[in-house]
Amino acid sequence: MIASRCRARAAADLSSVAGAARALREAGRTPSACWNEARWVLEHVRREHRLGAHAPLPSHASQQVAAMLTRLARDEPIAYVLGTQPFGSLDVQVRAPVLIPRPETESWALRLAEQLSVSLRRFPRPLRIVDLCAGTGCVGLLLAQHLHSHRDVRVTLVDNDPQALALCVANRTRANCDPLRVAVQGLDLWDATAATQLGTYDLLVCNPPYIAAEEHATLDVSVRAYESRAALVGTTPNTDGLDYYRRLAELLPQGRAQGPRDPALPYAVLEATCSPPRRGPMRLAMNVW
């Protein structure tokens, strides 16, 4: 039913934002989201086919719009439909089921990048950053790009999911980051040799799985049906959502580098939830000195 409605619209007025938004409303999408989603889809298709803002859509482009609207009508996240997600200065490639970067993560990553810039001006020194549970690599790549003028900054993007690692590599290329300065490493956090494999680092950033197992079913369908359960809950029982923080508490003392450093620079910045999730968790960044 949803697909047929969108196909019917494709022959009519999907070349206009109003027409595409109407198709989404008729398919049951939330009215408040329809206009923006329709606009983003049309901008994406027009850009991909190099069409002007007011040019009529050829049939193959209209069919592409209809297919994308159908995916949205099935509650698939807009980032997966478009294939990218803005994140600071980056345009991050995303692909299901790897976790989509969130605005809250972007906010603390940008603040951290500014703080690091100040710290490195006051304490110029080599700096190794490890981005654990990197997913798309968005946090580590944002820091690497922001600190590109500091030649002694090295970033390692770490994940145990092959799909996430592939996106880290792709996004490293999209961000024009030198592989000699930004490495990608496959690692299971629960491996007995994890600390040895990670080596030493000056700063660890991590957005770990922090959804309690029983809360996963309460998440919005756009989250629980499309995004990786392992990225949200993890691969342990994680009954209280804290398994990964306990593991990080074990690993952090073994890996943090010694030596003089800016007292304002934390050893770790971890994302955490601060309330029971509904559509998705409310997030905050937790600094560890």
From TrEMBL:
EC number: 2.1.1.297
Catalytic reaction list: L-glutaminyl-[peptide chain release factor] + S-adenosyl-L-methionine = N(5)-methyl-L-glutaminyl-[peptide chain release factor] + S-adenosyl-L-homocysteine + H(+)
GO biological process annotation, one example: methylation
SUPFAM superfamilies membership: S-adenosyl-L-methionine-dependent methyltransferases (SSF53335)
Record domain Methyltransferase small: where: 128-215
Domain spans labelled Release factor glutamine methyltransferase N-terminal: 20-83
Gene3D superfamilies: DNA helicase RuvA subunit, C-terminal domain (1.10.8.10), Vaccinia Virus protein VP39 (3.40.50.150)
UniProt keyword list: Methyltransferase, S-adenosyl-L-methionine, Transferase
InterPro entries reported for this sequence: DNA_methylase_N6_adenine_CS, HemK-like, N5-glutamine_MTase, PrmC_N, SAM-dependent_MTases_sf, Small_mtfrase_dom
Top-level division of the source organism's lineage: Eukaryota
Gene Ontology MF term list: nucleic acid binding; peptide chain release factor N(5)-glutamine methyltransferase activity
GO cellular component: mitochondrion
NCBIfam families for this protein: hemK_fam
Protein name (record): peptide chain release factor N(5)-glutamine methyltransferase
Native organism: Malassezia nana
Lineage: Eukaryota, Fungi, Dikarya, Basidiomycota, Ustilaginomycotina
